[in-house]
Prior knowledge:
heterodimer; A: alpha/beta; 5-stranded parallel sheet; 4-stranded parallel sheet; 11 helices; globular; B: alpha/beta; 8-stranded mixed sheet; 18 strands
Amino acid sequence: MGRSLLGIEDLDRAEIERILDRAVAFQPHGGPNFAKVNTCTGMMVVNAFFENSTRTRSSFEIAAHRLGADTLSITAAGSSVAKGESLVDTLNTLAAMRPSVIVMRHQASGAPHFLARHLSTPIINAGDGTHEHPTQALLDARTILDRLGRLEGLRVAIIGDIQHSRVARSNVFLLSKFGASVVLCGPPTLLPREMAQLAPGVELEYDMRRAVRDANVIMMLRVQLERIHEPPMQAGEYFRFYGLRQEHVELAHPDVIVMHPGPMNRGREISSEVADSQRSMILNQVENGVPVRMAVLERTLLW
Amino acid sequence: MVKKLLIRNGRVICPASGIDSVADVLIEDGRVAAVGEQLSAPGAETLDAAGLVVAPGFIDIHVHLREPGFTHAETIATGSRAAAAGGFTTVCCMPNTNPVNDSATVTAYIVEKARREAVVHVFPIGAITRGSEGEELAAIGSMVAAGAVAISDDGRPVMNARVMRRAMETARVLDIPVIQHCEDLHLSAGGDMHECADSVRLGLRGIPAAAEDVMVARDLLLAELTGARYHVAHISTKNAVAMVAWARRQGLPVTCEATPHHIALDTGQMRPYDSNFKMKPPLRGPEHVEAVIQGIVSGAVDCLATDHAPHAGDDKMQEFERCPFGIIGLETALGVALEVLVHSGRISLNRLVALFTSEPARVIGWKGDQARGALKPGYSGDVTIFHPEYPWTYDVKNSFSKSSNTPFNGRTFRGGPIVTIVSGEIVWKAPGF
Ligand SMILES: [Zn+2]
Ligand SMILES: [Zn+2]
């Protein structure tokens, strides 16, 4: 029947480890080509992206093809799911095509959970509103493991628009399950105090210099202006207080790595100097997208 | 020929007249004629209520009947049948219909439609402002003349304090309550659930308790300024309850209602992203729920009201962020209230009956031949007979409402309505009775 992946919050540590271990088998290991496996031949992956994300959608598509599965993409922009053609109607239509799995990106938090209640087709959440983005957290964890070899005991600083970040939530859930300590940092308007209750081992910090001190990982987030109704502060001021610069990297652990889920705004939340440095894992993250999503698709289709 | 109904041997509870004993109730010609032991009424139809509670007809001063304009979700006819099945004999319907009930024409339409099609008494509530847009006062005097018993822009708050002041001044002279949906729209903007750790975890935008509190605070000051009777709809926060209690101590004619769902459910009981848990005000955290219950116990909260808000299936079958606010509640109100308030030992059965009868009647202030909410001679011959203990399970498929948006589907209750009598006519009986 296959299992949905709606969020990291519902996964236990063993299951996450299994996905992360399996992803290793799909990494290119230095060569130019990914291994093409055909474990999922004949299966149909429907990519239903109600919100634009070329990067995540391509990554899922490539992952499906590498597994030998067929893909069908619908990229209904949010507006086209207008009154009359509800989300349920759209997905019922898709379900009638008997896909093996629906990979879904939606601008509303909980949209995949809503569908999972109405459809029997398993659903992989490729990002729902301001809630979760589980495959991003998994590929971030894979990237940290590749470089630092462990998650337990790490100090991870996540900085930026925490409130609107599904990446932040999924990472907090995952890292907490592995015994990492997470420092969330951002302007008070984008970092509600309730965030401290997300998971064990989470602390809040409104001062960036304190947040990055001794951090093993610094994860930067984009300010989601499209979700913010009043700007938290002027752009220049934002970079001054919450933009990552070399001086911050120097406060961190000597082996610190810098991450960003993209798309990145140079000079707004991160300086080019840091983004292009040896510490930056940003391209490794993109690269890990495909093997991690192959593992996730396999989990749903085969495990 | 005079039509008579004699209800015999029930436990008669009428808080307004201090009765709580086994007695008979006689209804003649649509009005209460007598309450006493071993009444004799030759030629009367009789109803044996032994083992049951016989109460004045329940009154719900806050329902949405959706007619005119949204009859796919509910009509006056279907809503009134749901009311009867919930033990209610009188309901007051909010004006957020299409067109909005902001004129004598719409008020008269509802009154006339209800007279022909409703099985319970229906009293319209007029809008405070034209189109409930919050800018210009509606035709309040004309609506009252046509049968409106209160004014409210429910569903929307009156954000403009000057407009609210003018509405209160008008209402004071007409001797009707002003019912406010207390929500500061700037603070609640775009929110879908109570702002708390759960909203943050689920990535849903929060509605802070302060959105309700600041509006209650403002209005209480305006009530003092104008001397109007002011009523807070669906109170849901601890500060709002405290402020209403404060205003009462200042001698202000201020009242408030609580809904069954706000005392039965907190944010922890919400099924994530299930639209049957989406309402305004949102379900609050446990400390607020406890404060509202405590307000009922202490008397700071005057009455219960369902805020019955039907939405048709398609409208609620959407992403949580998109679907409309509100749940139905007429048929579950008594079961929920018994469970939360009486079986838990928080209040007496007597007090519960008052919350559904004499207290809502006092909030609206029906007088003369409209008098209701008590089993006193001359009062409207409305009676609710209920069993305080029998177990039953709510199945929304059997609901009389056209809509099925409820978080209580499948829930088992202890105690519920058995017979509903409106103006001496039996309009509903529990299956099997
Ligand atoms: Zn309301
Ligand atoms: Zn209402």
